[in-house]
Amino acid sequence: MNILITNDDSFNAKGIRALADIMKQYGNIAVIAPSQVQSGMSMAVSLNAEKIKFTELSSTTHLDRNGKECTQRWGALDATPASCVKFGLSSEWLGWIPDVVVSGINHGANTATASCYSGTLGAAAEAAINHILGIGVSLCSHDADSDFSAVEKFFPSIFEKLLEAPRPNFMTYYNVNFPDTKAEEIRGARTGYMGRGRWVKEFKLIEPDNGSGESTYRMTGDFVSESCNTDEADHILTDNNYISIVPHTLDSTDYAQLKILDGIDF
């Protein structure tokens, strides 16, 4: 199997190195990750850059779980996560078309409406656009030195089942979130839906205007969960120590509203 790995925390993040270690048992690994942190980029692509720098970092071999010799190559691209996937599919460096794109392990939850902004999921969506299975993996902790042992224990089984699951629509990609807890405290994996919610008080004043007309803010905020959420909402699943698995789709059409609009004579 040929596996392309990327993230939005940059190639230096602990999470992507943990993911590469998990995935190498399945075959050839190519890591193409952003040179710098690209959180919140969703599916943004690097259209405005006149030059995009790519750096080959390493190339090694390893044995997969069947004893076959495979390659593991690392490269850094000065671009967004979605652009990293595009680079992998169009450049000569990769040398093969991936069977699957796995993005992560993200430092921080990509549950609820955070998934709308996520560069981690933007890469998985880019894979889906190209008819390739895309899976985003996140841990609900922003700690740069997070403990990924729960992901190491449970993700292989989840990955194998998602790989085998029928996917009638190529536009589907997956969002897997792990609670920030010890492996023995995880209650299992459950499928669910993107939770409903929003952030409030998102800009915090850091340096007030001192007369220059300029002030400085930091983006932060408090998440407000909508009252319509049920126990199957992904952020509630992870809050309850479940691994959440949500199928997303590229088609953002609101079909219920479309039926309403179809009845209006415009």
**Between the first and last Cα atoms, what is the distance in angstroms?**
51 Å
Radius of gyration: 20 Å
SSE order, as H and E? EHEEEHEHEHEEEEEEHEH
Task: Kindly report the average pLDDT value.
Answer: 96
Characterization of this structure:
The chain is α/β, with parallel strands linked by helices and 266 residues long. Helices cover 23% and strands 30% of the residues. It has six helices and 13 strands. It has helices spanning 14-23, 81-90, 119-129, 149-164, 234-239, 255-262, and strands at 2-6, 28-34, 54-63, 69-77, 100-107, 133-139, 172-178, 189-191, 197-200, 203-207, 216-219, 222-225, 243-249. A nine-stranded mixed beta sheet has the order 3-4-2-1-5-6-7-13-8, sandwiched between helices. A two-stranded antiparallel sheet has the order 9-12. Helix 2 packs parallel to helix 3 (119-129). The protein is globular.
In short:
This protein has 266 residues and is an alpha/beta fold.
Task: Please give the structural blueprint.
Elements: E1 2-6, H1 14-23, E2 28-34, E3 54-63, E4 69-77, H2 81-90, E5 100-107, H3 119-129, E6 133-139, H4 149-164, E7 172-178, E8 189-191, E9 197-200, E10 203-207, E11 216-219, E12 222-225, H5 234-239, E13 243-249, H6 255-262
Parallel strand pairs: 1-2, 1-5, 2-4, 5-6, 6-7, 8-13
Antiparallel strand pairs: 3-4, 7-13, 9-12, 10-11
Helix pairs in contact: 2-3
